[in-house]
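Sequence decides. Consider this:

===
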Amino acid sequence: MRTGNEPTTARSPLRLRLCLSLWGLAWAVFGLAAFTLTDRPGWAAACGLLLLLVLVDIAVIIHHIHQGPHYQPGRNIPPYEPDHGGRGRYGH
């Protein structure tokens, strides 16, 4: 339920998600190198696939960060009406 103060207190976890993705990138590169050097092609392929997924995730995160803040309603917009458990507005 919206209380009305979310636009002023809401924070996006994009920077945390970027840090976690960079951590995953480091481990995927390490795993790819280690499994390639130890002649384990199946595990190296899995780490390579994971590396590609992490790179795509990082690109999406950076895109979202560069988009900047999105529209948030101002203080003059009243809070949303609470959900009534899937029933209509008047409980019918």
Remarks:
- DSSP finds three helices and no strands in the chain.
- The CA atoms of residues 34 and 47 lie 10 Å apart.
